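@channel sequence for tomorrow's demo:
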Amino acid sequence: MDPKKIALAIVFLASEKACGINGIVMFVDGGTDALLNMEKVY
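structure tokens (generated this afternoon):
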């Protein structure tokens, strides 16, 4: 995983744009989790 993408997620969560976000799990894995879960559905 690219450290820059992790840093961008942290910067976003610390910004005013994320003021309404709380109590979530945010995956920063390049979409790997979404691909694995999609395979389970289909």
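heads up for whoever presents: The chain has two helices and no strands.
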